[in-house]
Amino acid sequence: MSNNKAEELKKQEAPQEEMKLDDARRVKVLSPGMLVFKRFIRNKLAVAGIIILAVMFVYSFLGPLFSPYARAQIFTKDVEEPGKYATGKFNTDSRFVGDASTRVQSAVLKALGKTKSGGKYVLTAGQEIPFTAGDKHYTLKVLNPSETAPACAIYGSDLIATISMGKFTQLDETRVDAGMQAVLMENFESGDKKATEIEYNGIKISAEVTKLERKYYAPAQEPMAVSTFNIYTPTLGKVAELQADTEFLHSVSAAVMAGETALEYKGVSYGISGDAVNGYVLSANGSDLFIITRDFRFGKVRVEKEGADGNAVTEEVEFQSTLEDPEAFVAAMQAALDAEETTFSFGPEDSSADYSIEKTETEIHVTNGNGELVLTVSNSFDPVESKYDLLNDSMEFAFAAETAIADGAASFAFEGEQFGLVDNGADYTILNQAGDDILLVSDVAYGAENKGIELTVDFVKKLQEAMRSKQTNFSFVDQHGEETQATITLVNNNYYVSTMQKTSLIDGRSAPSSKHWLGTDVNGMDVFTRLMYGGRVSLIVGFVVVFFELFLGVIIGGVSGYFGGVVDTCLMRFVELFNAIPFYPMLIILGSVMDNLHVGAYQRLMMTMVILGILGWTGIARLVRGQILSLREQDFMIAAEATGIRTSRRIFRHLIPNVMPLLIVNATASLGGIILTEATLGFLGLGVKYPMASWGSIINQVNDMQVMKTAWWIWIPAGLFILTTVLGFNFVGDGLRDAFDPKMKR
Amino acid sequence: MWKFLVRRLLLGLMIVVLGALVTYSVIRCLPASYMEKMARQLSAGSQGRVKWQDLLAELNRQYNMDGSIISGFVRWLGDALRGNFGDSWKYMQPVTKVFSDVIWWSVLMNIITLFVEVLVSIPLGILAARKQYHAADYIVTVFALACISLPSFYIGTVLKYVFAVKLEVLPLYGLWGRYYNSMGTWGKIGDVALHLIMPVATLAILSIGSLMRYTRTNMLEVLNADYIRTARAKGLSEKVVINKHAFRNTLIPLVTAFSGLLPSFFGGAMITETIFQIPGIGYKSFEAMLQGDIPFAMFYTTFLMVLTQVSLILSDIMYAVVDPRVRVN
Known about the structure:
The complex is a heterodimer.
Chain A: H1 3-13, H2 32-42, H3 44-66, E1 76-90, E2 95-98, H4 102-114, E3 116-117, E4 120-121, E5 128-133, E6 136-144, E7 151-155, E8 157-164, E9 167-170, H5 178-190, E10 197-200, E11 203-209, E12 213-219, E13 225-228, E14 231-234, H6 237-244, H7 246-257, E15 262-265, E16 268-275, E17 279-284, E18 287-298, E19 300-306, E20 312-318, H8 319-322, H9 326-338, E21 343-346, E22 353-359, E23 364-368, E24 373-383, H10 395-407, E25 411-414, E26 417-423, E27 428-431, E28 437-442, E29 444-448, H11 457-468, E30 473-477, E31 483-491, E32 494-506, H12 527-563, H13 565-580, H14 583-596, H15 601-616, H16 618-632, H17 635-643, H18 647-683, H19 695-699, H20 705-710, H21 712-740
Antiparallel strand pairs in A: 1-29, 1-32, 2-13, 3-4, 5-6, 6-7, 7-13, 8-9, 8-12, 10-11, 11-12, 14-28, 15-16, 16-17, 17-18, 18-24, 19-20, 21-22, 22-23, 23-24, 25-26, 26-27, 27-28, 30-31, 31-32
Helix pairs in contact in A: 2-21, 3-12, 3-21, 12-13, 12-15, 12-16, 12-18, 13-16, 14-15, 16-18, 18-21
Chain B: H1 2-27, H2 33-45, H3 52-62, H4 69-81, H5 95-130, H6 135-149, H7 152-166, H8 185-223, H9 226-233, H10 238-259, H11 262-267, H12 270-276, H13 281-290, H14 294-322
């Protein structure tokens, strides 16, 4: 102590009363605990260790409370990549409308194919091509002599007469007159087997010659089918625009809900007629546009069920599945609506439940007693003009349309309705009476690539345009009303259309960013958050195992050391046996046993802790035994024995507290070792399993070469965390050892 | 002395047998999927003329798997005492052949590691003791503690990442390069040496920490001893005091510490060998144990237990030899 300090002390003490040298107040007495504490905090490394451990504990145990992500939350990212959207093709396969069997269809294609020259059809309008399919005679009559997409009507043949053994039988009274009979008889009597084509008054008659009789056929007057290369795409015209206009639909829905019968939208007045049950009809300028029906969407409810373990489990089920008769429920709701009530009850009499109805602007919401939305009623719009869709399958319509196209007519009539026909050069548009385009006729076939894609009319039009002008890029409005860019690739006459499509991928191995401070791991989980939960497991495993080891070690070591003799010998042999079992081989074998038994993640964690404890307690038992052996011989124990207190009290009150410092030092130091062991197990894939995490099992991903090479953020931080934590425990353990046993130090 | 030795040996034998029984019981908990696979393969090989169930029973009988755990163990023990440890299921060879093929790689690696370890840690430990509470001491202590705190798999992976992946100066794993067979003798030695650098470094880093601390503690104890004070009082130079008087006395406890290295010497370094895929006993037995290869796992664990017992007895003897004051019993 320097002179200055000594003087200062004197000055301070001067005003106080003089103390004697041996005055008890002069000696500052510290409790043994305080002494240890003081010595401990004087050690810089130990304090550093304490700080490290505090930070790790806060991070692991409080961190998850602040982390925005869950333990095993998997992140995904949307990737835009070109995906197949649709395929287009100039139609080279004839399409049949009407009643034509496959046999007839192939015969038609064969007959048409014969007229091909230089890859193109050479046909004239009205040309008739006879052909046979099976033993029947047919006639193909060319409607539209297009070089690439001809259309033909297929006529069957009627048996009009037979002549058998010279006997004439007339089968079709309207067409067979006396003149024809004479011509046919003449043909029969000529006996010329090759004379099978007869023409009479413009009717082509074919004869079927057998040994005993001749059968005469004449073409049918009505076509049975139409073969065409054109595709009819319903376009819905103006209605399509309205249907895509969500604002319009919303205002109509609101009007329907409010019970109004008329509304005005963008200067056009619309009328609404009908009722809720049978549907409404929306019309404008005297023509019906939409049929509005109600769409019922049932919600989900929570139901208590008996789970597999016998406990009640709440489960989410479709509300519909809880009803025996959903229609009756709807009817009950309708009755309440009609009566303008806001609640109704439904269900069997003994267990009926109450429901409340709430009307929003466009929808009706029905909620049950628990406030769960069980039913949503909204309006669905069905264009009236979708009736034209049916025209696609009508042979008569196809016949009329194709004839009109061949004739170059501007309109044609079908079933009393007048249709307009607009020639766009390569394709045609068919208009209805009101002047709306309802069908697009062209020889381009197209199909969506998968079920989720609905091809819009706009897409079909743009696709055809692009295909005809040989463009490779075009843009169109897709089913969601979005402008989309498409690219065409031509492979073997197929035009493959691809668009940029959004797909959701697991966002694995993404680099650190503001969203994920340490990036994401292979499974797309946030590494920073995983490390928190991993730290929890690693630290908990460390502490639990150490307490388990202390428990076993103190009891067995204490008993062995205190009683000595046979007990000691037996217990120590037992300890030696456990000590002899190789540590890691045993852990690996047990790990693969657990793998094979498919132990759950939680049980596995428990088992791992128990195994680590059982394989690790022997060191502590030896330590305790050794200490107690030497303490037992000391004077204070003889004194304790002389006072005659109980054995258990002698052990736990007098012996164990004396072993405590050594135990604390040892436990702290072995905590680090246990964390290391657990991490090693995790690294080998034998530790805790998904969805749990430990620092070791996070590093386990580095066994994938790609992770090691490209994703340092997955495994480097976890290793550093293990290193700093174990280092922290070792610092503290060292500090404690020095504090308890200062003799070692100086 | 002899009485003690005989008693100790008998006790060791008993512990080995009981330990093997424990290991055997645990390992028998593994579902014998391997047996089933083998039986199905053999059955398929015979075009189904022999039912795989029959083959399974036959295999189980061959490997003592048909009876209870105890009877199976007794038969295993009987065979083992006659030196017959059976055929490894994974390697399809006699266990002892697999063992003798690979053990020397492990031993070689451990010998090199021991040299590196001693060369690094003993001078550093002495330095730390001499400069107690100086910067050098703190640096060495922190370094030693960091070495102890590092998980072996992490050191190995970081070394691989730095030297094999980033710098590409050392081979990533294995013991032999692609052109090993076309090399001359010296080329072969150089190739193996190159492959051993990282595994040896890993093992050395793992072990120098504890040896360094051990040396430091012992040295401190010796430096506080009276005879050192006497030596200094005689006016000997510090060099002579440290090298002649202090260091030699430090070696006594170190020698006994080395006898405890025996199991790790022959037992291989399981984790390190696995990370670097060094075909030593550790890696081979890790692979075998993962697949529940009972003959191999039993041989390896028994071997380790025997080694442990031998090393314990050796260290007892060493104590007596090094320090005549120590009396057995």
